[in-house]
Specification:
Length: 345
Amino acid sequence: MKPSDFRSDTVTHPTEEMYRAMRDAPLGDDILGDDPTVRKLEALAAERTGKEAALFVPSGSMSNTIAIRVQTTPGDAVLLEEWNHSLNFEAGAPAAVCGVITRTYPSNQGVPEVDDVISRVFPGSLHTPATRLLVIENTHNLHGGAVVPPARVRELYEAAKERGLAVHLDGARLFNAAVALGVDAREITRHADTVNFCLSKGLSCPVGSLFCGPRPLVDHGRRFRKTLGGAMRQAGILAACGIVALETMIARLADDHRHARALAEGLARVPGAILDPADVRTNIVMLRLDGPPSRYGRLQEGLKQRGVLGNVVAGRMFRFVTHRHVGPADVERALGAVAEVVPKL
Ligand SMILES: Cc1ncc(COP(=O)(O)O)c(C=O)c1O
């Protein structure tokens, strides 16, 4: 029997329509600038985020690195939430590739207070780094797919602008946020200068993310993508999937959110589980257990033996992610396995 794979929404495979689109896509050489399918995807991404231009890149990590690189110079400071993806999971790219100082701000389960962010801006002086960029992650992965409400994004944006900071939105799961809020994604992206979103997660594409923003920054990013070795040739094969994703795969994210909520409600009934199902707004469920952190590794192993896959995150919580390949039967299987394993930990 196939495992129920809750490790990540990145495990999703292309749909039949994507395979057809790949086969039929008109192709060129994107480095020479003439792949029509890449151009079409980039235009669509710019339109869907309300930005002037967009750049197709191989990964969300590269998109975020480009965002930082084109909006800072080495020695500048960037403000990131303490569990932000670029800070914790992009192998040190902000420092290694962009040469920036990272300064963290706290949040209440992924939703920051404006004062907490602004208090991290270095005072302008000869001695201090210049604080140039604020990064907001929405949805917030490590905070269980938390959604930062558009009103808070606007307040953060306005406070950043008063202090001359640019704002980058890491919207790897931007469309999960939009679907959870019942708003057009542009309601979220309008209060950001640049945006990353990923095709390769719940939208089921095999590869790819989009860096979106004003044309001069996207042009700069296009050059820097080359520096990083991220420019691709017949990338239209991949872009074709992205077009299908943006046209057909967004509304169904609501199913993933429903399954995540059902999972969270079941998990909350397990003795020793620490989670509030009301915090689960999108497709990520973070389970905490009372007792020592070593229990998470044993939970992972016990679930695996029962055909249920998930991840230990940061050694202190267990993550389940819902996506197109897990449904109600997988949720039931996971709940049964957790109920069996947890008492034995
Ligand atoms: C919030 C967030 N940003 C960026 C990324 C990086 O995306 P990629 O794995 O395509 O580099 C991820 C990946 O999970 C993510 O969750």
